[in-house]
Design a protein that fits this description.
Length: 246
């Protein structure tokens, strides 16, 4: 079956590919510049005490570092009254376990935090077969202070503060995703260094980075429209039509 796409000679393709390569190099240089700028951001001392429910008891934010100096917190959308975690956040979580060893040996602790009670988190984590650390901030201001959870009153006002701007409540939920970075000095002081929201952490989703290089790209009708929890896909990956070995 001939694809509904322009088909050219190898020479013409090579010319087009080199033109795209120039853009890709420009993108890489800009990405490097953004990363360097990110590292120069000033820090904010965390003076408030936050407590989290963990499988080994209550822990403070400082204790979540687990002996390392850097802490990455993924704000996983899973509200107290939800029966399951967000499909998009679950898609993100599918990418975590494989990188934990590398992060931990690079002085970085990575955890997920949700407002769902710990028993719900543990049950869902078991269902999905994950091993990464995942803690509950239920009863804490943590999610609200880092602008990933919103009360009914906030939503009723018509806008919520998300991704560093007022966002219409119609485009929001009681929970939204994000990632926050913290550092702890030798005296035990904790500082907030960075947070991203919405599509800001998209580069961490390696599945998307691969799809961006596939012939059909993401092939989506909206952000992550194709994503399901990994145990909810109807069957295995689709086969090529009229495969000779069917």
């Amino acid at each position: 079956m001939r694809p509904d796409h322009e088909v050219v000679s190898r020479e013409e393709w090579l010319e087009a590919r080199k033109a795209l390569l120039a853009m890709e190099k420009e993108e890489t240089r800009l990405r490097d510049k953004v990363r360097a700028e990110r590292l120069t951001l000033p820090w904010v001392k965390v003076d408030k005490t936050y407590t989290f429910d963990t499988p080994t008891g209550k822990k403070t934010l400082a204790e979540l570092f687990d002996g390392r100096s850097q802490l990455m917190v993924y704000h996983f959308m899973f509200g107290p009254d939800w029966e399951a975690g967000c499909p998009g956040c679950s898609f993100m979580a599918d990418h975590i376990d494989g990188m934990l060893t590398h992060l931990n040996h690079h002085d970085v602790t990575y955890v997920c935090v949700s407002r769902a009670p710990l028993d719900k988190i543990e049950a869902y984590k078991k269902r999905m077969g994950w091993n990464f650390p995942w803690f509950s901030s239920y009863g804490s201001d943590f999610n609200f202070d880092y602008h990933v959870s919103f009360s009914k009153d906030e939503l009723a006002r018509g806008t919520v503060y998300y991704n560093y701007r007022d966002t219409p409540s119609a485009d929001a939920h009681d929970e939204l995703p994000g990632m926050s970075a913290f550092i702890q000095d030798e005296a035990g002081n904790v500082y907030h260094t960075y947070s991203d929201y919405a599509r800001g952490g998209e580069e961490c989703l390696t599945t998307l980075m691969v799809l961006d290089r596939a012939p059909k790209g993401r092939n989506e009708t909206g952000t992550l429209s194709f994503v399901k929890r990994h145990d909810e896909y109807e069957d295995a990956a689709p086969k090529k039509a009229n495969a000779c070995c069917d």
